Request: fold
Amino acid sequence: MDLGNTFTLPAADFIPLKRSTASAILVRRDGPATVPANAAYPDPRKFGIARETPPIDHPYGSARVARSQFWPALKHLAMYSILIPENGMREPHWHPDTAEMGYVHKGRARMSVLDPGGSVDTYELEPGDTYFIPRSYPHQIEVIGEEDIHFLVFFDQPMPADIGYRASTSAVSREVLAAAFGVSLGALPPLPLTTEDPLIVPRVNALDPEA
Reply:
């Protein structure tokens, strides 16, 4: 049963396999020594990111990553392939150690960027657009059309740090948050405890037409 579940196959497929606790040093091989095409050494200059199992995979968005632990050629760079449907949103976040450049493959989205002076720049993205986010600038992206948005994000660090608003608010007490927002403790929303940055969050509210 366990092997069947491991390989997503019926357990009966493994009945012919003999179970033994002995450690075989030499075994007999039937047929010639051949190397199947899917077992060949990977191309060090090429990486099939679309075939990768996404480490972040939700009904409201997924992210596949090209980083050094998966692709040794990337010594000083990283790339994310992010797909977000209309019910998802890339949460507000910032990268303390890397700038970000993105390319929109498909879909329409709205990007908002907070600069150090406190002003917010908001603009629309469509297929073929490229955007740039300076290091440590908070930003977020949300879908504004019915089509999923797919965009590629490039970083100038092999392991880009990502600090999201949800994880940030979980790092301080509610008393501190209430003081920071200038409201009473009772007026503070019931913010959920988030111990791990979700990267992509579900959009539970209607799209703000004025943003």
User: Anything to note?
Assistant: The helical segments are 2-7, 165-170, 174-181.
